[in-house]
Amino acid sequence: MFKLKKHYIMAPGPTPVPVDVLLAGAKETIHHRTPQFLEIMEKTLDEARYLFQTSNRVYAFVSSGTGAMEAAVTNLVNPNEKAIVVVSGKFGERWKEICEAYGINVVEIALEWGEAVSPEQIEKAMKEHPDAKVIFTTHSETSTGTVIDLQAIAQITKNTDRVLVTDEVSGLLAEPLKMDEWGVDVVVAGSQKGIMMPPGLAFITLSKKAWEIVKNNKCPRYYFDLRYYEENYPDNPWTPAVNMIYMLNQSIKMLKEEGIENVWERHRILGEATRNAVKALGLELFSKRPGNVCTAVKVPAGLDGKKITKIMRDKYGVTIAGGQGKISNTIFRIAHLGYVSLFDTIAAISALEFTLHELGYPVKFGEGVKAAMETFHKEGVAG
Fold this sequence. Notes:
The protein is an alpha/beta fold. It has helices at 19-25, 35-52, 65-76, 90-101, 119-128, 150-157, 179-182, 208-216, 226-232, 242-258, 260-280, 305-314, 342-358, 367-378; strands spanning 8-9, 58-62, 82-87, 105-110, 134-138, 140-141, 146-147, 163-167, 186-190, 201-206, 294-298, 318-319, 321-322, 331-335.
């Protein structure tokens, strides 16, 4: 048994963090109200627009992505008003739960987990509920590895008085997003996924249409009141995470050097290689419309999904994710998100092969790895 183990994070958040980003956070902490820090803050938030492909301001909270989701709800919808919410997984459920916590009447588009909402379903809900002005969606439903056609949905809402909100906590940078061009009104995200940082920052950016609602909204809020962030911009109304802003600055620099189109393409190729690998092992995908964040795989009959994740993590040093909520032991998820390379993917697939064999699943060693390598070769990134 090897006592020395390398560890690979192949779960959809937190994701691996580049050393240069970590080192940026190790710099001296300066006071957050000084001109020196405000200059860094302004430059960083301005550069962050690139990640969302928007000219709108980006605001940063000290919270997880759920904080940005709560900010979107409380700044856009009043208690007793209607909101359309797409629920097809754990994070669609979260939109619903936040809305209900603030007394908002939820018009739920309920789908089977693993399915993706269609533009036609959104359009139908809009016609049936003309008084529901805000639509909450999840671009990448991390719990099921499913991605929606956000661009097509935005075409339906773009020239209306409806506000389209999307959770990009996992989808940002893994899935193509052109906020302004497509007409998406509100985007929320977190630092610990495609942005390649530790957890701790959340982001929100809004269109002019959305801001008109924010200005007059009466829903109770305080820490996440976006009017305070706008009034103080680029300063933060509360204490910002100084050293995480340093890290964000470095991460954006690295992502811009790679180029956003290349970042999107990298995630696509890694996702394709992972899907081909698990299918080569005779495993079945869970999602009806899989995306580039993570690959959700059905646990083979007779196997314990929790044992798969435990053995991969504790014996082989590869951390993947199990299922969530009602599918907690039905699937496992291998991520290809953030600071992940082709060799990380190959390592994860080889660990999966060892683990499945150990649990009695018929595996021909190398079949999954071969499929991944052939995909990388076909895509022109190796061989």
